[in-house]
Amino acid sequence: MKPTRLLVALVCLSVLAAPAAFAAPDGARPGRAAPEAKPAPKPVTLDDLFARLRASEDPAEAKGVARLIERRLDSSGSPTADLLTDRARQAMASHDFPLAAELMDRVTALEPNWPEGWNRRATVFWLLSDKDDAIADLQRALVLEPRHFEAWAAMGQIYESLEDKARALAAYRRARALYPQMDKIGEAIDRLAPEVDGRDL
Q1: What integer is the mean pLDDT of 86-102?
Q2: Minimal CA–CA distance to 181: which of 57, 96, 93?
Q3: 65-79, pLDDT tens digit by residue?
Q4: Lowest model confidence (mean pLDDT) among 4-18, 31-45, 125-139, 140-154
Q5: Shortest CA distance to 76 belongs to which of 51, 111, 31, 28?
Q6: Nearest 10 degrees: CA dihedral of 182, 185, 187, 191?
Q7: Maximum separation of any 2 CA atoms in the chain, in Å
């Protein structure tokens, strides 16, 4: 074999034996870097939603964020508890409040760490005119989820119905701090503040 042919053969063999690391990636042209993969979008957490709710200055946007929060809070994580809660909702719609209370008793027994279960049972007690038990359930819900603005608003409503205006105002203010654009909260605060401010709770 002539020297020139030997040199060509050696060059061909060296190219074929080149490490895979120097090969161009699939779909990429030689000499160009492969495109970087885009990072997956970060999931929106409940903390993110509550922060957006506090910061929002647009009532429509705030209402949309509040609904997203409510959807997150509405799920107990237990199909049985969710089914019982749905049946309790149907009983309430039919004004069968004792049945609704019985169903929510079972829900809170099954899922004692679900804030919305206590909030829902508080609503039933309110409809049964059992305000003491309603307040107790709202307090339990707020221990589990202190940012539950609906529970704070309901607490304010019950205390106001009991003529405990100082506690009502404090609860309304907690609700507004969490959800500044919440419907009618500002009106309730404006109504009670002149009578209460300056008094000890």
Answers
A1: 98
A2: 57
A3: 999 999 999 999 999
A4: 4-18
A5: 111
A6: -170
A7: 111
Cα→Cα distances 157→131, 135, 142, Å: 10, 10, 15
Distance CA 165, CA 201 (A): 9
| Contact partners, residue 29, CB within 8 Å, separation at least 6 | none
Phi, psi of 32 (to 5 degrees): -115, 140
Question: How far, in Å, CA of 64 to CA of 158, rounded?
Answer: 26
- How far are the Cα atoms of 1, 29, 108, 192 from residue 102, in angstroms, in the given order? 98, 69, 10, 35
Q: What are phi and psi of 200, to 5 degrees?
A: -80, 145
Retrieve residue 134's tokens: 């309603």
As a whole number of angstroms, the distance between CA 34 and CA 54 comes to 42
Per-residue confidence at 11, pLDDT binned at 50, 70, 90? very low
What is the spatial distance between Cα 107 and Cα 145, in angstroms, rounded to a whole number? 17
Q: Report how far apart, in Å, the C-alpha atoms of 81 and of each of 4, 116, 141 are.
A: 84, 11, 16
Position 73, amino acid: L
**Chain CA centroid to CA 125, Å:** 25
Which helix (H) or strand (E) element contains residue 30?
none
Q: Which amino acid is at 112?
A: P
